[in-house]
Amino acid sequence: MHQNGDQNVCEYDQMVPSGMPNSDWLLGNTPLFLTPPAFSRMDTMQSYLYRKEASDEYDTAPHNIIGRTRRRRSGHAVFVSFEVPDTPRAPREIALQLLSLKFLSEKHLEKIHKLFEERPVWSKNALRYLTRFTNDQLKYLLPAVAYYFVTGPWRVMWVRFGYDPRTQPEARMYQTLDYRLRAKGGLRTKVKAKRSYCDYLLPYKSTPSCKPKMAVIGTGEDVPEFPDSGDDKGHLEQNMYIFRPGMMPPSRQMFYQYCDVLVPEIQDMLEKLPEPQSQCHEKLGWMPPRFDDRCREILNAEILKSFHTELSGGTISTEMMVADDSP
């Protein structure tokens, strides 16, 4: 649409013919029309309420003048690298205050506390499977009981406040085993990638207003203990954090803990480990050299055996499956 004198003229009918045009339509003049450089990413009308950006009174970080990268959305979690001399002993006060704001009760927190008392180091996938809490709930529960290792032998793991695995040799059972699987041929149909460009979702599609809603009519009886957690039992499988013989990893890159790799050969190796070194290594932790490589070779053999079992009459060579040894 453009303005011609005092009136607006719509060019749509002239550019897009209606019905079956004759040959005279090709001889007519074509209006000059330049498409916009960028189109909207939204395919439906959206209502946006403009409001002033609120200042965060708890934000003590210096202002990023250059602004080359987006700031991490930590959710007030404590991120720790391997080089930090001391680990945190208590959560931030704002992390505890957010629990009540997000309608998380003491029962939610007690369930997480109990698991960290049984084991000081957990992966988020393991907690999702055992507690059946959603990602949104764990986003606020975990910073209240544990800190997050960014680098080192326990990277991508949550560690209980006050516990430093770098000073505890028995913590080697909880170290991270980064296992990656390069798939070729038919192997790709069995083990999917974590992310795909085909599964891209527009940002507004994930908002609550775009999700289907279900009306539930009840008398208030038989209220579940954790009503907000949802029943993910049909979507969460044990192989998301545990590996057993005969299991298939859900994705081509998995972050296991050595105690959760329930392969007899690997468990025997863990029981027969030599005495740990006097100091925790930045990459090896408390494990001997090449121990993780040997575990990856065993996992390759177990997965290959599972493929031979599932594919009746099929032949799969070791060339189809190569583990990525990069850390």
Automatic annotation (TrEMBL):
InterPro entries: TF_IIIC_su-5_HTH, TF_IIIC_Tfc1/Sfc1
Residues spanning the signal sequence: none
GO cellular component: transcription factor TFIIIC complex
Any one GO biological process: transcription initiation at RNA polymerase III promoter
Superkingdom as given in the UniProt entry: Eukaryota
Stretches assigned to coiled coil: none
Residue span(s) of domain Transcription factor IIIC subunit 5 HTH: 33-180
Residue ranges of the TM segments: none
Molecular function GO terms recorded: RNA polymerase III type 1 promoter sequence-specific DNA binding; RNA polymerase III type 2 promoter sequence-specific DNA binding
Name used for this protein in its record: Transcription factor IIIC subunit 5 HTH domain-containing protein
Organism, scientific name: Timema bartmani
Classification lineage: Eukaryota, Metazoa, Ecdysozoa, Arthropoda, Hexapoda
